[in-house]
Write a structure and sequence with these properties.
Layout lengths: L1 H30 L12 H54 L8 H4 L2 E4 L7 E7 L16 E9 L5 E8 L11 E6 L2 E10 L6 E3 L11 E8 L9 E8 L15
Antiparallel strand pairs: 1-2, 2-3, 3-4, 4-5, 6-7, 6-8, 8-9
């Protein structure tokens, strides 16, 4: 009997322990937070926000790139115009400084200024020279005296530019065949001033009323197309001293 009770007692203790363990497990399962749920993607709102941010970033980047590209292109075009303007001025100066004059027929050698409404400039100038500036290789007049005329003009396609015309300097200008060609589409015209040394009338003038003489000092202004549509044209200006034209009087001496 005692053994039986001990056995029963032992069995009861084991059952109590099992029930206590089950109760603890149940209580723990009720009080513990559920395990976190795994996220497998983005919500539609997150995707839309990301797309908006990406679009803004791309817009800013594109505007920055476009601004830098336009600035680089404008700078490059302006540099090309500067180089071209310097080249044309150099050719003009070389030819003008080589101006020829003989007192046997001074009217055939005189410097001339004419009004010209074409292009940005307002003048066309002409003179007699033996210089080959602006003349294509192979032209017969390259190695002799000729009259050269330079000013703004328009080609067959309606494009404005700087036009050069040459013809024999002693020929009848009403009948002689003249040859013309474009030397620059970047330079759209020119203006000219001469320093008149006539006593009592000294000063810069944009007309030359002497049909039998040449000036001693000339100011040439070339005009190139502006960088922006509504801006003023780009100007290139140079003073050119003519060796045959004395600085004090309009009387010239025979070329030596």
């Amino acid at each position: 009997m005692k053994e039986s009770m001990e056995v029963c007692g032992y069995g009861g203790l084991g059952a109590d322990q099992n029930r206590s363990s089950d109760t603890h497990t149940l209580t723990h399962s009720r009080t513990s937070p559920p395990p976190p749920r795994l996220r497998r993607g983005f919500t539609l709102l997150e995707v839309l926000i990301s797309m908006v941010i990406l679009a803004i970033a791309m817009t800013v980047a594109w505007q920055t790139f476009s601004t830098a590209t336009r600035a680089w292109t404008g700078g490059r075009e302006m540099l090309d115009k500067v180089h071209h303007g310097d080249f044309v001025l150099g050719q003009l100066a070389s030819s003008l400084r080589s101006m020829a004059f003989f007192d046997s027929k001074p009217e055939k050698y005189a410097f001339r200024i004419k009004n010209n409404p074409s292009g940005y400039g307002k003048h066309t100038i002409s003179w007699v020279t033996g210089n080959s500036a602006f003349i294509p290789p192979g032209e017969a007049m390259t190695h002799g005296l000729h009259r050269i005329e330079v000013g703004g003009g328009t080609d067959e396609d309606g494009v404005d530019g700087l036009v050069v015309t040459i013809w024999p300097y002693l020929a009848d200008e009403e009948k002689v065949e003249k040859k013309s060609w474009f030397v620059s589409e970047n330079i759209k015209g020119l203006s000219c001033q001469v320093y008149d040394t006539k006593e009592g009338e000294e000063g810069w003038k944009d007309t030359w009323e002497y049909s039998n003489s040449i000036p001693g000092l000339i100011e040439i202004t070339l005009y190139a197309e502006p960088a922006e549509k509504h801006d003023k044209p780009v100007e290139f200006r140079q003073l050119i001293e003519i060796p045959l034209g004395p600085p004090v009087t309009n009387i010239v001496s025979k070329a030596k």
